[in-house]
Design brief:
With 326 residues, this protein is of the alpha+beta class. It is built from nine helices and eleven strands. It has a six-stranded antiparallel beta sheet with strand order 1-2-11-10-7-8. The longest helix is centred in the N-terminal third of the chain and has 21 residues. The structure holds zinc ion.
Amino acid sequence: MEMLTDGFVRRQLVERKRRLDSVVGVSPEDPGLRRLLKEIDSALERMDRGTYGLCEACHESIEAERLASDPLVRYCLDHLTPAERSALEQDLETAARMQRDLLPPPQWRFDGWEAAYHYAPLGAVSGDYCDVVVRGDEAFLIVGDAAGKGITASMLMSHLHAIFRTLIAVGLPVDQLVERASRLFCESTLSTYFATLVCLRVLGDGSIEFCNAGHCPPLLVQEGQVARLEPTGVPVGMFCEGSYAMRRAKLMPGDTLFIYTDGASEARSGADEEFGERRLADCVRRYRDLPPAELVRACLGELEQFLAGARRSDDLTLMALRRVPR
Ligand SMILES: [Zn+2]
């Protein structure tokens, strides 16, 4: 990871030490400051000895994402003290709560449209991204999937959330929205991080405009036929200069669009069989006349029945958007 080169971390630590030194000069009795200074010195020493980033108990590498967020950690996850472990669990709980607060309302209505979704992290937090933003007479729906799982992916997810919320407020067309989001994401994260997503602009006349950035194709159900909304560009953040084609579709009253993450299509049963897009499409077609919340529930039910108790291996998001029938 390029951010974690010794040179980079060392500069960060030396800078922190310099700032701390100046504060310690003002309040020399503060034990917390003295302890922190000592920890920084010890990290710099470990760097000189070539043992920085190795667990002091097992000498294996410490998880890179933990080092990136706290360059002073000295033990891998397997060798935390009980106090450290409980602090970590509390952090995770807070992160999960913050992530839930970023989600849109579970059901939603807008100018002749209705939508509902199901969002299920695999662990405490999810790398799936799901948002609905209403802006005047238009609404934006985004469903995405950040590379990886767990805490790193969830941080990317909240990063995307902030980027899209900001860009949507500017009033850009969908293709430029995704293009700029991709550039911002690319420039502000490591090159190995990216996310697939679908960004939709929904209008009161039944039309939608969308970009599909390398995401599993949403399923559009019209008159009993299921069409896929194929990718129109690469995942966001993969290349800083990517461009995205925008496509349009028109939905008539009763038509439904179903968006999902690969946690659904790639879920595997105990017999190692994949649920697959075909089963999902079949399910959406069969239940297409149900309102979005019930359609989502029905598809989820079929997925769970298929898994028959086998544990999912990825975060999962299902969203249905329907043009309200007359
Ligand atoms: Zn260890």
